[in-house]
Amino acid sequence: MDRNEDIREMIRTEIQSISVLEERIAFKEMMEGVFLNLYEKNEEMYRALEMRVMDDLAYDINRYRICTGLVERSYLDTTHHYLTAVCDEDIEPSARLISEIREEIAGEGKSSLSTVFLKGDAVEIRKLLGKDRIYAGVLKADREYPVSVRLEICSRYRKKMEELYHLFMKNGVPWQTINAPYLFKMADVVICEMPEEIPDTEKVAGLEVNFEEYAPMVHYDMIPLWNVWHLKLESTGFPIPCGDYKNFEHIISIQDYGAEHAYLVGEKSGIRNVRQNRDRLLITGEIRNTELWDVYMIRSGEEHKIDRYTYPVMENLRRDGFAERFLRKNGQKVRTKGELERFIRGFALESYIGYQDCRLEDGEGEEAETYSMNFFIKDEIREQKGRRKLILFFKEQGKETWLLRDIASFITSEVQELYPEYQCEGRML
């Protein structure tokens, strides 16, 4: 017997105990007209509160899955259902004036003329970008002019990764490393001195560079993609004051975009809590006025059959089985080699790379083959010097050999979060 039936039975018993007919009728009408309705409304509100708490606790790690890809500019589809450019300026690059480039060189000592994709192994790219080497090129404007350029790490895509990390933290969503090998293979073609014979009024129309023995690695007009979309949305209605008379709840409708996607709200001072309730975003904070919100939609979905990608789309998806959910729910530590292997295989990357074993090493050993994809997370508590190394060993299992150390870097970055007391590195066998 449920609680509602218990209440009704109690009321029926009480009614039967009243001997005066008029009092019995009055009591019955009062119970049915006021008390039962009030009780049922309270029960409904309690169930809604219970569901709200459960929704906040039921965190699905794959709901915030980040996918990354790479596409030639000629194949970029701005209406794509799933992926968009990491940097908006890549979609419609503007022609720059020579005068603007000169001003940037005067202020910063250099200026980026173009961004290129380096298709090669992570160690090879690290050595290439570590060289302060000058390459001869031709700058195309109204005429062609000889220039000298060099290659540098492209930082704007990495800044986007760091901004996304801070968005996750601000919205109270656990961070999971982004599997983004292509973002670490982008390089800027930089000029440090503009020839005087080029007039300020001319615009840059193109650039050709002789990269000599590295020419096969360099690819122009490549655009990194991911499934994070930037939206500008307005609140619906007026802010609702909270019980503490300090905070307000703002409601944003996401009905036009879909409740199946995940959403993050841009950083603003005063925001205390962000949560999604079906097709609405509920923002609680000390912000009084209704305004335009920066909302970031992490789209979910699958590739269409007609989608074309020259390079594989990478993702930080984890297998979602009983063992995975049980471990996440109970926060079980990874203490054995078997548990570590199960954790690594949970990323389902066996078609590219195979985990073999791990080993602890002391002190300075071989030069690291992998890098941290969480370079923006700093450990301010633990001493960095003198840490032992936890080496993860992998072997090649796929055709994309130039991506292997990047995929190993992704896995190693995730394992590093498990074992902050060690310096985690990956090595290919």
UniProtKB/TrEMBL annotation:
This is Normocyte-binding protein. It comes from Roseburia inulinivorans.
